[in-house]
Amino acid sequence: MSAQTALVPESGCEVPSQRRSLRMAVAWQHPTNRGVHPVGLLEYDGHVHRFRYLRAASIVPDFRPFVGFPRLPERYESQELFPFFAQRVMSPRRPDYSVYLRALDLSDSATPWEQLARAEGRLAGDTIQLVPEPRVETDGTTWGRFLVAGIRYQLADSVERERVLDTVHPGDRLELTAEPTNPKNPRAILTTTGTGIHLGWVPDMLLDYVHFVRNCGAPEVTAIHKNDAKSPNHMRLLVELRGTASSGYVPFSGPKWSMYA
């Protein structure tokens, strides 16, 4: 049987307990309007990989099923990582493999799943993005890491971008600021320096989770790893959020995360 998820509200702190596998949300970005839409969940229980589409995928404008996953209602299972996702993991035979893992703040022993989760599964010119499910402990404490999104849009001038990023160091405390006037998403949350300089945004797929945690108390956000200007823009800054949700809270759950199978 597949891992079950609880239906939870998008605000508040009280939800029933639930046990689940490692999961990543899979999103598709519309090539024209650039909107990011969650369309599926990739799971791994230590033995079997599973992929299932969200019911909401059927109403995402212009979305078409992924290669290897032709039917929306079907549940796909494999002991090996599906080729569609495995192609997003760098081969250890590549001469730049160790350099790439260091850019992800991972060791050479990192598993394909860890690499996929940290790099968000992105390929050049691709419209796919993966975000790992944040962890919630039995006592309600929670933590998760994410790459700050949209740095090159928030800091459009390259000189200013490097000047600002030069002031951010691993271990620095960062802040989260709601942006209800954001024209694309009124639930958007900015990641800022301690002095209030806007760096970029929390990834869209984590917004429900971050709003939930913020409703339960102020989380602590810390810069974990920073890459130089030679790195892809989406990999410039890795941050960690630690806070309190509630015992049993399950990220990536609720009506809009309902799956077919």
Salient structural properties:
alpha+beta; seven-stranded antiparallel sheet; 261 residues
What features would you describe in this structure?
The protein has 261 residues and is of the alpha+beta class. The protein contains 6 helices and 12 strands. The strands form 2 sheets. It has a 7-stranded antiparallel beta sheet. Strands 4-3-2-1-5 form a 5-stranded antiparallel beta sheet. A hairpin with a 6-residue loop joins strand 1 (22-29) and strand 2. It is globular, with a radius of gyration of 18 Å. The termini are close together.
Question: What summary fits the major beta sheet?
Answer: 7 strands, antiparallel
**Main sheet: strand order:** 6-7-12-11-8-9-10
SSE string, helices as H and strands as E: EEEEHHHEEEHHEEEHEE
Q: What general outline do the C-alpha atoms trace?
A: globular
Helices, by number, come to 6
Would you spell out the secondary-structure blueprint of this structure?
Blueprint: E1 22-29, E2 36-44, E3 49-53, E4 75-78, H1 83-86, H2 97-103, H3 112-119, E5 128-132, E6 135-136, E7 141-147, H4 151-154, H5 158-165, E8 173-178, E9 189-192, E10 198-201, H6 207-215, E11 220-226, E12 237-244
